[in-house]
Amino acid sequence: MEMFLYGFMQRAFQASLVISLIAPMLGLFLILRRQSLMADTLSHVSLAGVALGLLVSVNPTWTNILMVVVIAVLLEYMRMLYRTYSEVSIAILMSAGMALALFLISLSQGGSTLNIEKFLFGSIVTISMEQVWILYILAGIILCLYLVFRKAMYVMVFDEETAFTAGLPIKTMSILFNALTGITIAIIMPIVGALLVSAILILPAAISMRLSRSFSSTILIGIPITLTGMLSGLVTSYEYGTPPGATITLILVTILIVITIANKLVQVFKMNKSWNKKQT
């Protein structure tokens, strides 16, 4: 039994290493584009993809990926449709994704419902070697695209109109970014669960933004932060039998609180030092 669990833990650690390379990058772009809730939307849709796979007896990984890619295209279309109120498209697709997931779950048998719970809350025994290899390939694609389109994405994030005027393929880049984010969520979800998968993308980027003002350094700092949260969360989850997603999220939130307090203390110290110099 221990060797059985050791194999799953080994795969979970490999997945954590790959996730730590791409999560800060995707999370930073989501935050800068003010689309943090898009990760939640795609996680809800991913749950519907899992339910569909279990219902039709197909590997949930593939139905999951197919579902999020379709929604990624719809998300960009609806974002353009509701350009002034872009959050409307996220709200519509989030509720539709959850409604579809619940509808498909209700059609499933009892065994499928139990499997859904693993994807809902996360479990180290749900990660397969196939998913780890998909993560490796996905990380390679994301890193290559980042190196090629880094400047274009930077311009698009801060000024979409300027990027459009410059002739950049805004719609194609947005759809591709949404699709890659959705696929990443679909692969990560078995480890951390659909309810908290978005936190794994957003929190490391949010934490590293408190430590750096540079675009590239924010991503670089986010890598060890993500790795620390993932590995410590998985070990704690294994030792105490807690849900992996909840454990990882709480550790990342704790890191954010500690860094925020430390930054405030440093600011107070600098202000006091400056004040003392003026007095003397």
Automatic annotation (TrEMBL):
It is found in: Cell membrane. It holds the Pfam family ABC-3. It comes from the Bacteria. It is a multi-pass membrane protein. The chain crosses the membrane at residues 12-32, 88-107, 119-149, 175-203, 215-235, 247-266. Keywords: Membrane, Transmembrane, Transmembrane helix, Transport. Signal peptide: none annotated. Belongs to the ABC-3 integral membrane protein family. This is Metal ABC transporter permease.
